[in-house]
Amino acid sequence: MSFLQPFLLWGLLAASIPIIIHLLNKRRHKTIKWAAMQFLLKATRESRGKKKLRHILILTCRALGIAALATAAARPIVSGLLGWGNGRVDVVVLLLDRSTSMELKPGDGYDSRRKVVVEKVRDTLKDLGGARLVLIDSASGQAQDVPSPEALTDLSSTAATDTATDLPALATKAAEFLAETPGRAEVWIATDLQASNWKADDERWASARAALTALPQKPSIRVLGLTGPTASNTSLRLASSRRSGDQLVLDMEISRAENARGTVNIPLTVNLNGSRSTESLTLNGQSLRFQKRITLPTGSDTGHGWLSIPADGNERDNAAFFAYGPNRPIKSIVVAPSGESAGYLQLSAAPPGFGNQSVTRLDPAKAATLATSDTSLVIWVAPLPTGPTADVLQSFLAAGGQVLFLPPGQGSDTTFLDLKWSQPSEAPLGKFFILKDWNHDDGPLRDGIDGTQLPADRLRAIKRQIPIGDAAPLARWDDTEPFLVRRIVERGTAWFAGSIPDYTWSNLGDADVLLPLIQRLVAVGAERFDASYLTTVGSEGSKLLPGETRTRLDDYGTPDPANAAYEAGVFKLGDRLLAFNRPAAEDGPEVASKEALDTSLSGTGYTLFEQAGKPGDSAVSKDVWRAFLIAMLFFLISEAILCLPKKTVESSLPTRPGAKATA
Amino acid sequence: MKYDFLDSALLSKLGSLPVESRTPMIGNVAGKHKSPHRGSSVEFAEYRKYVAGDDTRRLDWKAYARSDRYYIKEFEADTNLRAYFVVDTSGSMAFSGKAEPKIQYARRIAASLSYLLVNQGDAAGLSVCTDKLHLEVPPSRRPAHLDRLFTTLGSLDPSGDTGLVPALHTIAEKIGQRALIVILSDLFTDPDQLADALQHLRYRKHDVCVFHLLDPQEIGFEFDRPHRFVDLEDGTVLVAEPNLIAEEYHTALREFLTKVRDVCHDANAGYQLVTTDTPMEELLRGFLMGRLSKRKH
Q1: Selected residues 92-151 of chain B with any CB under 8 Å from a CB in chain A
Q2: What is the b/e burial string over B225-236, where b = at least 16 CB atoms within 10 angstroms of the residue's CB?
Q3: Do A210 and A288 fall within a single domain?
Q4: B31 by DSSP, 3-state: which?
Q5: What structural domains does chain B harbor?
Q6: Lowest mean pLDDT: which of A38-42, A375-379, A480-484?
Q7: Are residues A393 and A518 part of one domain?
C-alpha cells in the first residue's frame, strides 16, 4: 500500500488524542467528601473487568476512527501488483520477458500479455510516483533507466521480439545492478512463466539467489505471472530445411493448444523469393508434422521465403522463414573392405535416381587418407580408428558430420569415444537375433512423418557384435542387447549398429531397415551444409560479425527496425544469407510450477501474482480511501453503541421519597 | 428566631395538626393520647364482668336491668406522649451535595416536631449519637425545655463513625415507658444490626418512626468527570470515574434501600426515605396527616 499524500500520515498521531484526553481526565479529578462510601467501594469492585474492557474498546474505537480518517486523508493506494506490500520504494527493476510466447493474447480482442503487463507496470508506477524504474529486457539483457513510466510503452526495448528468455541470466543481471545501486529496491519479473524460459533446474538460479539475498537491503521480488486463459492459437514451425537438387525440402510442424478439438482447415501461404501461393492444410488433433517440398526456379542458386498461417492468438508464431544456397552434392564415404557388405552400403548411401548423392569406398588400409570436408556421412566397417584417423573423425563429428560404425568382424579393446566392439557372437543353430524394441520417435529408425513404422522387426541376425560403452541405445535385440546406440559429439553424432548387411551376418541388406537408416543419416549429415542458412533468433550464429551490417530481405509482417536483431525473418548479414526463426522452445506449452518457482527463488521471500495478465483488470492500483472512511464510520458507530447507556432495570429509587412512607 | 433551623411560618401552618402516636402511650399525666389503661375519658372501650373490688359507681345499671348481670363499663384513658428524637451525628450526616447538609435537615425535623409536641402538652427529648458520643436531653413538657433542646440541636457537629445502633439499644433499655422514637439518620450502618436494634425497640412497645435522610446526589450519583472521593467518616480515599460505575452504584444503593425498608417494616417501624431537597412543610404535613388517619381507623 502506498499513499498519494504521505505527509498527511502525520495525522495518525492524532489517534493518540483520545488516550491523552483519557489520561488527563484521570489526573484532573475533583476531590469530594463523600458519605455513601460503602456503595462506591462495592460499585468499584464490581465494575472491574467487563466495564474496563468496554471502556478500552471505546477508547480503541475512538483511536482507530481517527487513524482511519488520517489514513483516508493520505489517499492510500492498493496496487494489484504491489498488493498490501511495503511502503516507499527507491528503485524498481523490471525484468521483462519479451519472448515470442509473451505475445499470446489473454483473450480475443485483448492486447498481448507483454503489452498488458507493460501497461500495468506503467500505470502502477505512475500512480505511485517517485520510484526509479530500471528495465532489463530479455532480448538485450541490458539494464536501462526509464526516465518516466509513461515512456515505458513507447520504448523499443519493451516491444515484441521473436527471442527466447533466459530468466536465470536476467535475475543475475538484476542482482549485479542492485549491488551497485543503494536504496530500497523491488524486482518485478514480468513473465508468462514458460518452463523453457524459467529454467528452474538451471544452476545459475543458486548464484542469483545468493546475490539477491546478500544485498545490504534485501529487495522484494514480485513475480508478475502472466498465466491464465488465452485466445485460441496455432503455431507454425520450421524444423529443418535442405536442398535436394531443384527442390527445397522443409520439415514443418503445425500445432495448436492442447485443448483444441476437431478438424480445421488452415490456409498455408508460401512465399518464395516474393512469389506467393496458398494451399490448405487439414489439422486434426493438436499437431501435424509435414514435409513441404518447394520446387525451386530453374537456375536458382540462392533464395529465401517464408510460410505463414493466418493471424490468431499469437501473431508472432505464425510464420517460418527459410533460405537456401546453391545445390551441393551429398557425399558419403564407406570405409570397408570390398565385398557384399560394402556393396549394400554404397547402394544405400547413393541409390540410383538420387542424382546429387554419391558415395566412395575407401579401403580400411587407406583410412589415413580420409578427407571429410564435403562429406555428409562416413560408414566405418573396420576396426575402430586410432591416432590421426580418429582425430579426423572427431573433427568431422564436431563439425556436424555423421559416422555409422558397423562391426569389423572381430573383437578388440580399441575404443573410440570410449566405445568398443564385443567379440562376435552367433545365434544358436536354427535361431536368430531378432530386432525387438526400437525408438519410434527419435533416431534413424523413427516412424515416418505420416506415422508409418519401419519394418525393423524383420531384421534377423545370426551373427552380431555388441557396442560396449556409455552410449544411448535406440534399438535392442530380443535379448535386450543393444543393436543401435548413439553418441553425440558436439554438432555431429556417432552411431554404432551391431550387424552388417552380409548374408553370413544378417538380412540387413534387404533394404527394409538399411536404406531408410542410411538415407536418414545422410540427410542429417547434409544438414550441416544447409543449416548454415538457418539460425535461431538470439543464438550466437545470429550475431553480427565485425564489419557486417544487417539487412532484412523478406516482406513478411511489419518489421521494427529498432528490434531487427531480435526479430525473425530473412536477413543479409554482410555476405551471409540467413533465415532467422524463433527458438523451438517458445512453442512449448509447459508452465513453470509453483514448486519450480519456490525452488528457483527460495529464501528470497518472493510474491507471485498469478493473475497479473488477467484481461479486463486494467486497474492495477486502486484508491482505497473510501474503505478507510467506511472503517472510520464503523469505528465511530461502534463507539457510539458502546457509549449508549445500558438499558437499566426500572429503578425503584424514589425521586421524592416523602411520598413513599410505609407504616 | 435565634435558631436558623426553626421556621415560625411553617410552625404556625402546622399548629393545627396534632402529633399523634400510632400505639397507646403510658404517660404520667392526662393527655390527648390513647393509653393502654382504662380510665375516665369519654371514649367507651368495652364491657367486662364485675369482680369484687371494682368500683360500684362504674356498674352499668341499664345492662343489669336487661340481663340481670353485673357489668362494668370501661372507657379509654388518655395520657400524654413522650417523644425521643434520635439524631445520628456521624460524619456522613455532614454531607451536602445539591441540598443542605443532612444534619441540618435532621435539625429542622427534630426542632419542628419538638415544638409541636411541647405545644400540645407532650414531652420531647433528644438523643444524639456517634461512635464516641451519646448525649441525651431527657423529655420534658415544659416550654422552657425547648430552649435547651434547640441549643443542643444547634451545637451538633457531625464526625466519626455512626453510633446509631448502640444508641438505639441504649434507649430501648433506658426508657421504661412507651414512647415515640423518631430516628433521623442516613442509616449508613449494617442493616442487620439496625434490624436488631429496631426489634429491641419494638419489643419495648415503642412507636418507632424512621426518617431515612439522603442527599439527592447520593441517590442520583451524577458527575461529569472523575472524582477523588474522601470518606467523611474514616477518611478512606477512592479515585473513580463515576460514569463507569454509576450502574453498579445504583444497584448497590437500591439493594441497601430495599433491605433497610424491609428491616423497618419487619420491626413495625414507620419508614420514610427523605431526600434533603424535599420541602419541609410537605414532609411534615404528610407525616402528621399520615399518623392522624391511623388514629381514625
Answers
A1: 92-95, 102
A2: ebbebebbbeee
A3: no
A4: coil
A5: 8-23+80-296 (3.40.50.410), 33-79 (no CATH)
A6: A38-42
A7: yes
